[in-house]
Amino acid sequence: METFLQQMVNGLTLGAVYALIALGYTMVYGIIQLINFAHGEIFAAGGYIGVITLSFLQSRGVLEAHPTLGLVLAFALAMVYCAFLAVALERMAYRPLREASRLSLLLSALGMSIFFSNGMMLCQGVYDKAYPIQLYSTGQFTVGGAVVSYIQVYIFVGALILMTGLNLFVNRTRLGKAMRATAQDKVMSALLGINANRTITITFVIGSVLAAAAGVMVGLYYGSVRFDMGFIPGIKAFAAAVLGGIGNLTGAVLGGMIIGIVEVFAAGYLASEYKDVFAFIILILVLYFRPTGIMGEQVDDTRV
Amino acid sequence: MLKVEEIHTYYDHIHALKGVSLEIHEGEIVCLIGSNGAGKSTTLMTISGVLHPARGRVLFKGQDITHSPADRIVGLGICQVPEGRRILPRLSVADNLEMGAFLRRDREGIRQDLEKVYELFPVLAERRRQQGGTLSGGEQQMLAIGRALMGRPRLLLLDEPSLGLAPIVVEKIFGIIQQINRDGTAILLVEQNANLALGVSDRAYVLETGRVTLSGPSRDLAHDERVRKAYLGEQ
Amino acid sequence: MRKELVKFAVVMLWAFGLLFPMLGAQIGFETFTFEWGRLVRVMGLVAVAYGALAAQRALSAHRKRSHRQAGPGLAERVPPLWGWGILAAVALVFPWFADNYARDVAINVLIYVALGLGLNIVVGLAGLLDLGYIAFYAVGAYTYALLNTHFGVPFWLALPIGCVISAAAGAFIGYPTLRMRGDYLAIVTLGFGEIIRIVLNNWDRVTEGPNGILGIKAPGLYYPKLSEAGLTLGHVYIKHLTWLYYIALVIAVLTIVGVNRLDHSRVGRAWVSIREDETAAELTGIDTLRMKLLAYMLGAVFAGLAGAFYAAKVRYVNPSSFVFLESALVLCIVVLGGMGSIPGIILAAAAIIVLPEVFRDLELYRMLAFGGAMTLMMVYRPEGLIPARRRRLELHAREAFAEEEGNA
Which CATH code for domain A4-289? Predict the structure, then answer.
């Protein structure tokens, strides 16, 4: 039985990852009211690109010499790849359905999710792909009885940096404010000269960049990635977004943290085989008792 | 400056505009009056490019903007203050104004215009960090107009600026509208309050169920029998 | 023309960029190689697909320009009554002309027809996107499995019990979702489906966990026989595929008739109006909450029926048959066939089961194809393969209206 502090440390790490994925869900829902089912697969794709990059560098002997450079490259390439993937996704499966019913959009998203996960399986095989973590998993330190590995620190700090960057972008830059404007009132934003299509594309790009980073982090933390690793974390991350209030960025981070911490504690103190169930139960409870979430939703509730 | 030729616009399966034509010249204030559902807002939305006509043309300074996307039309100098203000509720007052200048690149010019707007509406300067949704109706209207001004429009479209506001606020706003016009911006004003609209404008159009039924200098229309009976509340 | 070529080049470049790392990189145990063969072949496929879509777009644009109406689809050409007649005749005599393998495939098709039609009630008619439908199938299967192995309850008795329990499950799962927005519904039902699977997998004491429940008895039949003691009742377990096929056929026909009757009833119309606009439906006096609950429960009953039969046929159940993939598969059947369209769903169920059997090597690509097909369907042909007439009118109404007015 792990100590309370240890659970907390693990929970915060997991929560940070969920938060990154949840941000993507919440931003896309906030701007076009779509649950991007394929977002979980983008997270998985990020993990794959990470392992591919690192394996490539390792095979050329570069990784041993420059491990940090390799890591940076892995993150960078994963983020770039997923950005392109998300843009393609939006163009092919979502933009043509802009005027269609919600049901059509959801089904299209579901179709893409199935397509991507099966695609990755066919491309890279059904077995886990291992990360060369021997270069990175060195080192841990103890704080008050809890063992904190360096990787956990990197993940948490990395997530913090990304979220701070997002915060700055969304609150201080012209494009970021345009994104928020489009999410609050699409028609008015058009009347201000904001190009809806471009803004939506940017939203997808940012969300997928965060998810890609989360994918690499998970690969480093657990040591491997699989083609279906996006399915369950995807649902949990969406639950986190709803928990925090859909469309609300702070809410998504809060929700992610809560779900991560609850999952770790529940697995530790209650029953570890049922750990996935807790996120679903939280989701159902939230939607039943407080559907607008902890911090309140932020979606466009206007009509032309 | 702006020419609308025989536009037919459909909205929600309804034939909202059935051949509307109007013209606005440089430096004019033109008003569009009519009862609810006549199609006034639809006309503005069609000019702004949010809606597109199934037939007819919209020309701005000779350029055909009938099927241009809304953001392109804003870039050409047509800004709208839509019905209900439509302030971006979770953006600050300052951010709302900044968004008004979204397409502009001249940092110095934007800063100066921002100062001018704060001078024109001191209330906004006070509340510049507050979220737009927390402002009162009158303050939001001022914010909306200020935001439109930030775009340095050549043509300003106003949809029901007096709606839901106290008379004293309305007076102030209409005074500002006239000031804006004197400074060189053409204005197309849509109003249910025909008295107010005719009083402040040079020319007027009357819209009834999607068609222009009357048009002419505002002074003449104000004395027109039909207009007085229908819109000016005379018996 | 040049613009088209530029677009094509851009798409190819994107495809290359996305496929190159995923498809090209092969990570071995200590090795790393680039494989170009597969990459080139898939790029070729992408080019062909793009060409096909571009051609289709050009064709429909040309058609619109020359104001020619699109010809009636296959469905309208076949006079409905004798089409059904042929189908019924084939279905009845099928097992006598087929080998055991074909009979087994046919039984699977019938099971998925029942599932598809059941889900159709929830998704196609009432418009509730249920992503955890397979849970009811599991409830039906496990109910019979447990009743039979623990209490010796025979199949025919367990069937109605299973229906009741499935209906209860439908009510239980449906109730919290009644007030939820459509988008959330999907995720919540997905969550429920997963919860049930996880519970089945881990509650070893009751469900035997991942090992599953063995030794379930097949449906039994009493028949009169002559013996020394006179007329007595003999008993036999129906394990022969031909007879199981007929049981499955009866279940499928029951489902078809049931859904058809519902579609044309007041309940069915209530569901459709809820699907179109729930607030408007409320205003016309429809008790939306009760109707939605009813949809869940009826859908669950049909799935439970199919599930119990499945348990009796295979005589073994385990949680891996009830994964999300199965829910997605049934949803694909409903969507591809045309929501609300009974002949469409039958066709889609047959296609989804039979095609991978016929093209054995493509088995791996089955879900990939169906996922992609679902998206393609939504973008290009949301009414499905054989549209329900109502639906096609709705979906193309706006286009038709605008065209009419444009020509007026």
Answer: 1.10.3470
